[in-house]
Amino acid sequence: MINFIPLTFFGLIALVGGAFFVHGFLNRQKIFQSFRSFSQSLQGEAGRDHVAAYPWMRGKWKDRDLRIFFHTSENHTVSVLNLVIDLEIRTPRKFVLLQKEGFRKPKPDQLQKLEEEVGPLLGEMGIPFDVRSPEGEATREILASPGIRKTLSELTGYNQILVWDGRLMASRQFDGVDEVTPERLEQAVSLLERLSIPLEMEEKVAVS
């Protein structure tokens, strides 16, 4: 279902540390019902790749392509389930935001791959995320916007946010079915849209 995954997004998820725990039984059918209800409101669809798989959904959020799905990463002996929201964004900018409190220090070989894929660490930016980008100065200027900084302060529950090649992808550890009711999903996507709009406006200002 997901045809476009920029860079090593899921490799980055696997590096995220924090309070991991093994989930017990999760009612995939309830999640599927929530996804189906939300996707229908967006003239989209929901599905599962097989009976035991976690559901996915896609649709149109206003005039933006939207995908929501799950990704399981392995952290040593613990499986971590992440909820991923993938929203279309109209900016050519490339950067990744990594949760300061949850992103453990990569091993040397992982660090080299990380820097090759998403660029160097840009240093303290005054936001609740570490920032990596191959476009250092342009990224600094965009993330200095008060509107963007305010929205980022409300996104600290996400372990990473990636803006790359027209996609805004955000992931967070999944803690239960209450997170994926249609109401909660709408709130989550609305918040990411609030981030995308000033990013696009800053780009228009820079071009003009």
User: How many whole angstroms does the radius of gyration measure?
Assistant: 17 Å
Q: Gap between N and C termini, in Å?
A: 37 Å
Number of helices: 6
* Basic shape: globular
Helix content: 25-40%
Q: What is the β-strand count?
A: 8
The portion of residues forming beta strands comes to 25-35%
Low-confidence stretches: 1-7, 15-25
Order of helices and strands: HHEEEEEHEHHEEH
Question: In words, what does this structure look like?
Answer:
The structure is a single chain. An eight-stranded antiparallel β-sheet has the order 1-2-3-4-8-7-5-6. The longest helix is centred in the C-terminal third of the chain and has 26 residues. The protein has one domain. Helix 5 packs antiparallel against helix 6. It is of the alpha+beta class. The N terminus is likely disordered. Strand 2 and strand 3 form a beta hairpin. The N and C termini lie far apart (37 Å). It is globular, with a radius of gyration of 17 Å. The chain contains six helices and eight strands.
Secondary structure blueprint with pairings:
Layout (H helix, E strand, L loop, with lengths): L8 H7 L12 H14 L3 E3 L8 E6 L2 E12 L2 E11 L6 E5 L8 H11 L10 E4 L3 H8 L2 H7 L7 E5 L2 E7 L8 H26 L1
Antiparallel strand pairs: 1-2, 2-3, 3-4, 4-8, 5-6, 5-7, 7-8
Helix pairs in contact: 2-6, 5-6
List keywords for this structure.
alpha+beta, 6 helices, 35% helix, disordered N terminus, transmembrane, transmembrane helix, membrane
